[in-house]
Amino acid sequence: MGITKLEKGQFLHKADQDTVNSVEVVVKGSIQISNAYSSIICNVGGFIGIVENPGTPYAYNYEALEETTVYSYTFNSPDDLPKIIKSNPKIAPILAAQSSEIAAKTCAAYEKQFDDALQEYEQIMADYADYPSLCIKVGKIAKTFPELDELIPPEKSEKVPNWVIDFSNSLKESEAVLKKSFYGLNIEIATGMIMTTYTIYKTISDQVLLLNEYRKVLKKKTSSFASTMKVIKAKLADMERAETEGSVTIVNALNTILVYSGVSSEIASKFEEQISSFKSNNNRYDSSDEARALRRNISTSFYEVFTPAFLRSLTDEELPIEVKMFFMFGFVDEDLAGAKNTAILYNMAKAYIPDEKGNVLTIYEWLKKIYMLEVDPSKNEFDQDWPSYLREQKSTGAINQAQLEAMLNNPQKRLDFEIHNLFSLGNRMTFGRISSFVPVFDEQNVLRPLDMAYQTAAKVNGYFDMIRGIDYGVFCRQALFSNTDIGVPQVFFADDITPYMILMPNVGSRASLWQEIDGKNRRTKARMLVSIFNTENTEETMIKLFGEFRWEMCKTEQGVHWNDVTDPSLTSMYCDYLQFYKKNSALSTENKEKLRTDLKKFSNNYKNVFIADYLSYVKFEAAGSPRLNKVTREILFTFCPFAKAVREKNADNPQYKDLFSHYSVRINNTAKPILNIIAKLKKEGIDVPEELTNQIEHLKK
Question: What does the pLDDT look like over 517-544, one tens digit per residue?
Answer without folding.
Answer: 988 888 899 999 999 999 999 999 999 9
